[in-house]
Amino acid sequence: MWLRTLRAAALCSTALASVLCAPAQAAYPEKPINLVVPFPAGSGTDAVGRIFAAELGKILGQQVVVENKPGANATIAAQYVARAKPDGYTLFVTTNTSHSAAPFLMKNVSYDPIKDFTPIARGGNLPFLLVTNPKQPYTTVAELIDYARKNPGKVTYATGNSTGIVAGATLARRADIDILHVPYKGTPQALTDLIGGQVNIMFTDLASGLPFVQSGQLRAMAVSTAERSEIVPDLPSMREAGVDNFDLNSWNGYFGPAGLPPEIVTKLNAAINQVVNDPDVRKRLASLGFDAFSGTPESFATFVSEQRDLWGSLIKDAGIQAQ
Question: How far apart are CA 241 and CA 225, in angstroms?
């Protein structure tokens, strides 16, 4: 018996046997994964994130649990994920709000959007609509601008995220109108007050706003991009509506904390790409107004860095001061 033990010890002392004798590593994932969403339940990112969570759970063989941590322009959730253990069990589905805009909209952001996260994959884009309450005396962007010029400070615009904030301020600057900003903690609350007539207009993502447009509770006037959207091809772009140099879109993507092991990044990236390449899933996401696509972790990392610089310029050009 002692001889066999001695021989085993000698074997494990060799370079080759150090691999053979090492304890087996558990295959990732071996327990449920927490997917943090920085916006409230009912928001566009939440709705899309829940579809991804369900599909990723099927692919990875473990439940992916959505946890909403809304508030402070998505910085509460971002800070939470940045401080989490980089083991692949705390992931972040977020948008340009936390990683492109918040560092320029807020003075005291307690995380670095580049250094404190591991980019995993793009999820796609959430195009935005300019919507209004149907009871308002304008039906087009041109009529809205004319009304706002005749009634300075009387038109209010609701926001539930950074894209809405920057879009509203950009409209005011580009159209040379005086409109009043009314911020909300999240998109669902802002839409509720818009429908109720407490505020007048809003830039909202298609996933959140389109059902209310289809039901007649809201009127859509344009998409927030320079070109028309394939999802709502009948709506004019902002350029067609008479507002030049207006091209805003909200991107969506997946991150882990900094230091996420490469093998976990590779596995999660492959799973996310599998989700967006499923025709049935893409159709479901498109019905929410979400344009799904992905790519490599490297291309996503480059994109995030470029978007941070782009949104910094947009916010500066819109005359928004950090709060």
Answer: 11
